[in-house]
Amino acid sequence: MTAPYIPLYVGDYLADTTHLTRSEHGAYLLLLMAMWRGGGKLATDDDRLARLAQCSDAEWTGMRSTILSFFRRRGGVLRQKRLTAEYAKYTKAITQRKNAGKASVAKKRSKISAVASTGVGAGEERALANPNHSHNPNHNQNYLNTDETRADWPTAKDEWVDVLIKETGCADPARDIWPRTTAPVLMAWHEVDRFEWRDVLAGVRTTLLNARKPLTPKSWLFFAPAIAEARRLRTQPTPDPYRAEPTHAPNTKAAYRTRAERSRAERNEDSTIAAFSRAFGGPAPGEAEFEGSA
């Protein structure tokens, strides 16, 4: 677990190293960086220390005592006081972020599971919490596509990655670079695929809900299939249970096709029948008989 940077307090560093030569500055800084990448410690192996400092054996022998005076030696291990403290702060922050991310994912999964088991959508939860809330009978009761998942994308494109990082909890902004390097995928969803923001969130949440272990994606493309499926489910036509045509065995429900499965001519016929019904206030000839047989 290594941070992509090492904190360097320039004033403090220069105050402590005014006596170093240019070569000694280089060797000391290289050892500090190697120590940071090594988890805050280095082995007291002169050959390895010389290689890390990019010194010849003779050069290392000449500066060894000066450089090692900045470090503490214990049990065959070198540490540097300031670096040890900074590394401890870094590891603590990383652990806190990971725990917070896991807690956030667990909370989202718990909420989705509770909604799925009770059949109460987010809109209904708000209505129960606020009796004065005016419930819309046409409100979509699927939690993954509630009105809190807006069709419009966030106005600032720079926010897209940040919002999805918080939503998924599967990336560490301080360590992982893939959310930024694969950000063009989000632009493609927006400009090419024309996904709505609610499709994106629905696909992400569905993926989180179905995950059997912590997610470790390396690209936002990981969520693309679920997002496409969320849009398909949202936009597919609603089957018309009153209009269908027998295919093999009349008078059985299995013998009828949905409106979406019929030809264009057949759908035009449906429209004509519906217009006849509206004009004359009743079903078209044969329609009542058809409905009774379905």
Question: How would you sum up this structure, described in words?
Answer:
There is one protein chain. The chain starts with 9 loop residues before the first helix and ends with a helix. The chain is elongated and about 105 Å long. Strands 1-3-2 form a three-stranded antiparallel β-sheet. It is an all-alpha fold and 294 residues long. Helix 10 packs across helix 11. The C terminus is likely disordered. The chain has 13 helices and three strands. It has three domains: 78 residues, Arc Repressor Mutant, subunit A (Orthogonal Bundle), CATH 1.10.10; 138 residues, no CATH class; 41 residues, no CATH class.
| Cα distance spanning the termini | 65 Å
Which shape, going by the Cα principal axes? elongated
Largest sheet: 3 strands, antiparallel
If helices are DSSP runs of H or I spanning 4 or more residues, what is the number of helices?
A: 13
Order of helices and strands: HHEHHEEHHHHHHHHH
How many whole angstroms does the radius of gyration measure? Answer: 32 Å
What topology, given as strand order, has the largest sheet? 1-3-2
Strand content: under 5%
Number of domains: 3
| Integer average pLDDT | 75
Quantity of strands, as a count: 3
The helicity comes to: 55-70%
Low-confidence stretches: 118-149, 244-256, 286-294
User: Structural class, from helix and strand content?
Assistant: mainly alpha
Outline the fold blueprint:
Elements: H1 10-16, H2 22-37, E1 42-43, H3 46-52, H4 57-68, E2 72-74, E3 77-79, H5 81-118, H6 122-129, H7 158-168, H8 178-181, H9 184-193, H10 197-210, H11 224-235, H12 264-280, H13 287-293
Antiparallel strand pairs: 1-3, 2-3
